[in-house]
Amino acid sequence: MNAPADPPPCGPVGYMRRTRDYYAALGHAPYRWAHHAEVPFHPLPRPLAESRVALVTTAARFDPARGDQGPGAPYNARAKFFEVYSGDSAAEHDLRISHIAYDRQHSPATDQNSWFPLPALRRAAAAGRIGTLAPRFHGVPTNRSQRHTVEVDAPELLRRLRQDGADAALLVPNCPVCHQTCALMARHLEAHGIATVVMGCARDIVEHCGVPRLLFSDLPLGNAAGLPHDVASQDATLELALRVLEAAPAARTTVQSPLRWPGHPDWKADYANIDRIPPAEVARLREEFLQQKEVARGLRGA
To answer: Does residue 248 contact residue 212 with C-beta atoms inside 8 Å?
Structure first.
């Protein structure tokens, strides 16, 4: 199915078309985004104040042996992971997004709370807004293979969430394909009795795939959990997600956050816009893209 045309500049970014054109210019075959007509829907089995809520992320654990993973680091395939992982929700963690295509031009990537809302969830649990925070959070790999995501990663995530006794899960993607990954995960969890809400910035990808609940933040990729270094916006974003989780009447419920990006307004026009990239830079990016593909292929086969 062809991706829809870009909406007017005042609306959400058309990430499916934008990334299709960008990667086509770099020599990648056209990508077919996941699409489903039917969407599973599982209401919360008990009030949110009595529910156990889990966090699911596409961010990667920092490993100093894997190259530059800091703010603004170039796309780093060495930092990728290829299996579901879990971490202690009571501990502190250093999670990075250098391995995926977040908005490097406009997002500072200096505050992991913008993409990993574990502290906000702890505050919600302490305030009694949710019953308990699941003992573990879970990281899911970003695979272009929808089949692998659905047949391997989603069942493994479900198994771990059942071990944790989770009633619900918040899924926070970062890059375009991350949004598809989290959408597919959410569909699988809902079909097996766990309520979900996706907190995302790529509305077209998530809605095209078809999910029960989406909190859409019209912000640069990498900020689905709120504005960087702005705890109030992060708590408000989480609260909106929790309201969607408990109040959505049916599948395909999307609620848009009122947050606005405080930085340069050109962020919507800039991201992966091949028309704004000089030919010499396109050639350099094409070579870099091929090199990073080889790195990822080597890691996956190792």
So the answer is: yes
